[in-house]
């Protein structure tokens, strides 16, 4: 691990719910080096997902700075932020969020429609991504024809296909049984160790967190402590 | 995969719903094409090309009869070979069944309409019989009329001199018309020696337009000014008496498109509503707000374009069949202007049904949409 992939400086996030204002993050600071695999843990409402959304450029902080891959993303406007996400971030969700009308191949190809790659090059990249997640033989199946674990593998392939440096995973095993969850977490480990992807993963599950290099604990919008995993 | 195939895939995510919506678009544009071409026919200028007969009626209305004494003048016109005349009788069969009936001169009628096939003996009997009438084959079959039968027919225009509206005719041939003298002498209004219109048979290669202008010029400033037109235009102006065809067409189309707007608009709104999380995922992957708006608008456009083009093609085929079926008398064609208006309607409809759902998709906040808020 060398330089910082993510730097969060004095970040405050306030949500407005009707007339009520709720401060979710209170001047949070965090640094994630390139090549790290971080698990974010904490009780519901602690701000884990909010922090993940800010790091992934899905939301903007109320104040403070967020630097990802050397660039400040808290100053980017809507369109710029969308283009930045396409180049720098791969997302993995708890419920996979695949497009039901597309095959596994089509789902993985979707982010590549934003690039200038030729159709042939796109197909090649898709094949590689599906090979990495071990789903080459399911390329032409639609999500409803796949198991939960396979759907999540497709989602990971989709996150990988444009080769982003940072993967942001929100409860990636929350909807899976233990065995399948471990397979998915093992895959994330491989991506981190062998492909050099920096990974930030939100999880409620301490066993899932053990697959990360370290675990950060959040409570009431504050970072409490960090635990380094022996396994890592 | 391309963006286009992604749009099409999304369009058919609920196949039954999309097909039903597509059918309603097809029907609307089929109706649009046919009614617009009807409108074009009714608004078209006079077309004398290929005319073999001309119709002369009073300039004001064909309901104002012209004197039959005009016949020699008309017949002396170069290019005119024979003149027949007809008087609208307003026939009613039994209780309330209206019949298209005219009184006419059998000999002249036979000369001007040689295409009406009837045995010579029947034409001769028709000419000799004062109360004779002939009827079309289909009509005769429909009411079970046989030659030699007495046919009681009322007139909703002309009562007899004794005040009775009932007339009795002898069916002497299977085709159409009745004896002119019988009508002239027996009607109460004393309408004698007049006809609603004259039918002029033209010589081969005669200049129909020039003859038409000459006839109207001949009777200009006389008590019986004329309006001369082709059979086709005459038939169209006859139908026009129903009312302002253009207005009727516009109102029907307004109702059709308003309903279509609701149907397709509802489909699009529902389609966007049920995949809010998917649209949020697109934005997460890096598609901009504008791209997502474009996807939804493209779906609306594809739906309207598919349906609209199929509808217009079907309208073209149907209008060609109508033209053929009426022997060119009602020449419906989807000309360039109808297609152009159709394409503009497709674009406007796409915007009308797609814009609101597309704007909703554009405004989606990713974190709220993913959280189901």
Task: Explain how this protein is built.
The complex is a heterodimer of chains A (232) and B (373). Chain A has 232 residues and is of the alpha/beta class. Chain A has helices at 48-55, 78-88, 104-109, 119-132, 148-160, 178-195, 206-209, and strands spanning 4-17, 20-33, 37-41, 63-68, 71-72, 89-92, 166-170, 198-202, 214-219, 222-228. Chain A contains seven helices and ten strands. In chain A, the strands form two sheets. A six-stranded mixed beta sheet of chain A has the order 6-7-8-3-9-10. Chain A has a four-stranded antiparallel beta sheet with strand order 2-1-4-5, with helices on one face. The radius of gyration of chain A is 17 Å and the shape is globular. Chain B has 373 residues and is an alpha+beta fold. In chain B, the strands form three sheets. In chain B, strands 5-4-8-9-7-10 form a six-stranded mixed beta sheet. A five-stranded antiparallel beta sheet of chain B has the order 6-3-12-1-13. A two-stranded antiparallel sheet of chain B has the order 2-11. At the A-B interface, α2 and α3 of A face α1, α11 and α14 of B.
Radius of gyration of chain B from the CA trace? 30 Å
Work out the strand percent of chain A: 25-35%
The CATH superfamily of chain A is known as P-loop containing nucleotide triphosphate hydrolases
Model regions low in confidence, pLDDT < 50 over at least 5 residues of chain A: none
- Identify the biggest protein-protein contact and residues per side: A-B, 28 and 23 residues
- Low-confidence stretches of chain B are none
Number of spatially distinct domains of chain A = 1
Structure annotation, total helices of chain B: 14
Major sheet size, sense and barrel closure of chain A: 6 strands, mixed
Average pLDDT value of chain B? 84
Let me know the average pLDDT of chain A: 90
The outline of chain B comes out as: elongated
Tell me how many strands of chain B there are. Answer: 13
